[in-house]
Design a protein that fits this description.
The structure is a homodimer of 218-residue chains.
Chain A lengths: L2 H9 L2 E5 L4 E3 L7 E15 L5 E7 L4 E2 L13 E14 L3 H7 L1 H27 L2 H16 E3 L4 E3 L5 H8 L3 H13 L3 E4 L2 E4 L2 H8 L8
Antiparallel strand pairs in A: 1-6, 2-6, 3-4, 3-5, 3-6, 7-8, 8-10, 9-10
Chain lengths: 218, 218
């Protein structure tokens, strides 16, 4: 986008602070707005009718999100909650079509971003369909450090507070299993675990484990 | 799109016949083209390094597909094979950006379609993460009859040849499990199974089974 286009887009946004722990929108609410995250981190979680939670993704600064209405849905399919204090830009949903048709380069970018998410979702479908739990957790961690890793003396740290429950909900397994797996990896020197903190000390070792031959899975 | 735009788009396409069993493109091949299916049915399958297959989706007439290059990928992430004799339109990948920027209403439609696929992929992630095998197979069948069902005297039939192996690869399970589950359902009068043919005789019963309380899953 050129500077003039960008000015027009920004001029029509409102900025909004989202304190840690609060929701930007909730699953089932009518889709009134779409968003770009300026600062901070969100997690997007879908709840099943029986109350089980599935972590759909983390939203990083620069990401567009909450575009359900733009895609002809009347309600948000999941809940987006701030993991740390965050700041977002907000636009009313009903300007989506006009925005995209009058800013074609923006719409190409949105398509690329949707393509990336679609590929990530298909990768998760593949992992959930063919890999046992330990490899899935390894792939989840490797994806997180690729998207939000920061090098430290201990290794590559996930750049925001993350719990073992988050990892379970992102890997299609239970808190109990994740906890058991991380303890094993910690004693093998692959990871270091703290309170809401995960550091991968041996990225190569974890990658090797993630790619090992399948042990078979129903 | 108005008629003039549509003429321009169609004028730049080539038509291509895809005999049953042949691939339009294969996983790993360079992305030279994107496509719209005119007639027939394709299945899109991703193979893991160890040779396990995951069915990503069926392509129906009117669907756009093979848009990997458009989304800045250099190779196709999966293989698309004709399930029945099919006919497709083909465009060179390098005209994608020009196409989308000069036909904004087309790009809005593509975004909506990608949004639908993203929601379907997230639904599968949710099912694979939280449901045991029988409910997943039920959801797969219900999705298939919603997308490609045809009413017959016996019930709602999936409108193209489909195998129990396909259902296994679309539900993240084994041929053996699908076979066992379908036999059970057949004796309960929920489905009728033939060679490459699945008919849902009791849609309400199958929906009820798909929504039953979870029995817990690692």
């Amino acid at each position: 986008m050129d500077a003039g286009e960008l000015d027009d887009v920004i001029a029509r946004a409102k900025a909004q602070r989202i304190p840690k722990g609060t929701a930007v929108f909730r699953q089932g609410e009518p889709t009134k707005s779409f968003f770009v995250l300026l600062h901070g981190r969100l997690k997007v979680v879908k709840v099943t009718p029986s109350g089980q939670q599935v972590l759909i993704r983390f939203v990083n600064p620069g990401d567009i999100y909450g575009i359900a209405k733009a895609l002809s849905r009347e309600d948000y399919p999941a809940t987006a909650t701030a993991v740390i204090d965050s700041v977002t830009l907000v636009w009313p949903s009903d300007i989506w079509d006009e925005f995209m048709t009058s800013h074609p380069s923006m719409s190409l970018n949105v398509m690329r971003m949707m393509g990336d998410r679609l590929q990530e979702a298909h990768t998760r479908v593949k992992e959930l369909s063919t890999e046992e739990v330990e490899r899935r957790v390894a792939h989840t961690l490797l994806r997180l450090i690729a998207q939000s890793g920061r090098s430290t003396e201990e290794g590559v740290m996930i750049d925001f507070p993350i719990t073992q429950q988050d990892l379970a909900q992102a890997s299609g397994t239970t808190f109990h299993s994740v906890s058991r797996i991380l303890s094993g990896w910690e004693s093998e020197g692959l990871v270091t675990i703290g309170r809401r903190k995960v550091v991968v000390s041996d990225v190569e070792g974890l990658s090797h484990l993630a790619e090992q031959a399948p042990s078979g899975k129903e």
